[in-house]
Design brief:
The complex is a heterodimer of chains A (110) and B (115).
Chain A lengths: L3 E2 L5 E4 L4 E7 L6 E7 L6 E6 L3 E5 L2 E6 L4 E6 L8 E8 L6 E2 L3 E6 L1
Parallel strand pairs in A: 2-11
Antiparallel strand pairs in A: 1-3, 3-8, 4-5, 4-9, 6-7, 7-8, 9-10, 9-11
Chain B lengths: L4 E3 L2 E4 L5 E6 L6 E7 L5 E8 L2 E4 L8 E5 L5 E5 L8 E8 L9 E2 L3 E5 L1
Parallel strand pairs in B: 2-11
Antiparallel strand pairs in B: 1-3, 3-8, 4-5, 4-9, 5-6, 7-8, 9-10, 9-11
Classes of the chains: A mainly beta (110), B mainly beta (115).
């Protein structure tokens, strides 16, 4: 059974701070890792994808992957109230079907 | 089309009735996925299509659930004899060819309420 674990939160950070979202996965053959953002009542949208160990930066977002520790994280710098949403971690391994975590709720307060 | 579309956006039905949910993927996308998301829960995989065939139906929760895809495009998810526990948001996603590195693009979802 492939599992993707996330802290459900809510994670509350002040505006301008760094938000750190974490995800662990059980399947060692996992190859692709995705972070989706889901606003309340809306569908998920992709923020970042990462495939190799290390950091990947895109604007205020940085994804970090450590395959040895089976750990992927998302850092959001200079957090804004508009970043308040649920962040879903998704992992794809031997099959094309991604396994999603339950998501972490992020609240950025002014 | 510009994005994945789903219809209806909302559906209220009575227990025991059948419902059909429709998904129109992005033009040219051969891979199509159905998920279910209950309130406060993550995405539960239901079924995956590659073209018109469904190589993975492992997520369908019971034999009341079925899906088809015709012409490599539109897909329909049918729930027969609906139960209250079927109430959820049903999300459809598509990707270009279905490789493990691809981004999935989600539709707006169909909110199903079974009374």
């Amino acid at each position: 059974q492939k599992e993707v674990e996330q802290n459900s939160g809510p994670l509350s950070v002040p505006e301008g701070a760094i938000a750190s979202l974490n995800c662990t996965y059980s399947d060692r053959v996992s190859q692709s890792f995705f972070w989706y953002r889901q606003y309340s009542g809306k569908s998920p949208e992709l923020i970042m994808s990462i495939y190799s160990n290390g950091d990947k930066e895109d604007g205020r977002f940085t994804a970090q992957l450590n395959k040895a520790s089976q750990y992927v994280s998302l850092l959001i710098r200079d957090s804004q109230p508009s970043d308040s949403a649920t962040y879903l971690c998704a992992v794809t391994g031997g099959s094309y079907i991604p396994t999603f975590g339950r998501g972490t709720s992020l609240i950025v307060h002014p | 089309g510009a994005g994945v579309s789903q219809s209806p956006s909302n559906k209220v039905t009575e227990k025991g009735k059948d419902v059909e949910l429709r998904c129109d993927p992005i033009s040219g996308h051969t891979a199509l996925y159905w998920y279910r998301q209950s309130l406060g829960q993550g995405l539960e995989f239901l079924i995956y299509f590659q073209g018109n065939s469904a190589p993975d139906k492992s997520g369908l929760p019971s034999d009341r659930f079925s899906a088809e895809r015709t012409g490599g495009s539109v897909s329909t998810l049918t729930i027969q004899r609906t139960q209250q526990e079927d109430s959820a948001v049903y999300l459809c996603a598509s990707s270009l060819v279905g490789t493990y590195q691809e981004t999935q693009y989600f539709g707006p979802g169909t909110r199903l309420l079974v009374l």
